[in-house]
């Protein structure tokens, strides 16, 4: 006797993590979110994936991709427990971008309006590294691994440790 076919519909499974996302995804709170998306396109080659906005244009939720990474963002809204750097007067973290050509990406970001907070230079840990602030108050570090002479690395390490011992941060611009 043939088996009876079930009349119940099969429920499709849903992946707990959306396609394209990694386990951890930064979510930025901003002032002027729509402007920020345009800046990230110019500065870092971001691709806009999604945008939901209020009738007056404030970003409720947006997604951009930089390289192989997705960043979510929204404008700051009254009553939210998440504040933009403009509200805080500072930022609490840094977004880091590894690049195959950090000098080119650095110049692209500076040309788009990013401000240098730590000059791009070869660092004692073997990376060409620098830090920028975007016009919306978020901090970005850019780097790529580089081959360095061990003597140069040690000299840079000693100089950095000396500055840390004096309560200063190496490479910080005034």
Entry summary:
This protein is 25% helix and 30% strand. With 174 residues, the protein is α/β, with parallel strands linked by helices. The model has no long low-confidence stretch (mean pLDDT 92).
* Domains (count): 2
Q: Tell me the strand percentage band.
A: 25-35%
Shape: globular
Q: In CATH, what is the class of the largest domain?
A: Alpha Beta
Task: Output the CATH topology of the largest domain.
Answer: Signal recognition particle alu RNA binding heterodimer, srp9/1
Order of helices and strands: EHEEEHEHEEEH
- Count of alpha and pi helical runs: 4
Strand order of the largest sheet: 1-4-3-2
On the 0-100 scale, what is the average pLDDT? 92
Main pleated sheet: 4 strands, mixed
| Low-pLDDT residue intervals, each spanning 5 or more residues | none
Helix-residue proportion: 10-25%
Termini, distance in Å? 85 Å
Rg, alpha carbons: 22 Å
Strand element count: 8
Structural class: alpha/beta
Indicate the CATH architecture of the largest domain.
2-Layer Sandwich
């Amino acid at each position: 006797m043939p088996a009876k076919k079930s009349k119940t519909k099969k429920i499709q499974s849903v992946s707990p993590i959306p396609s394209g996302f990694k386990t951890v995804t930064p979510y930025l709170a901003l002032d002027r979110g729509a402007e920020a998306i345009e800046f990230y396109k110019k500065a870092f080659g971001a691709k806009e994936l999604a945008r939901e906005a209020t009738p007056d244009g404030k970003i409720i939720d947006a997604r951009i991709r930089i390289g192989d990474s997705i960043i979510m963002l929204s404008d700051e809204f009254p009553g939210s427990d998440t504040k933009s750097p403009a509200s805080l007067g500072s930022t609490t973290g840094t977004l880091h971008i590894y690049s195959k050509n950090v000098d080119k990406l650095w110049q692209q970001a500076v040309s788009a309006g990013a401000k240098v907070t730590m000059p791009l230079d070869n660092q004692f840990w073997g990376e060409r590294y620098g830090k920028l602030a975007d016009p919306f108050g978020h901090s970005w570090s850019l780097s790529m691994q580089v081959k360095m002479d061990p003597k140069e690395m040690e000299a840079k390490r000693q100089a950095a440790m000396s500055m840390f011992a004096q309560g200063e941060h190496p490479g910080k611009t005034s």
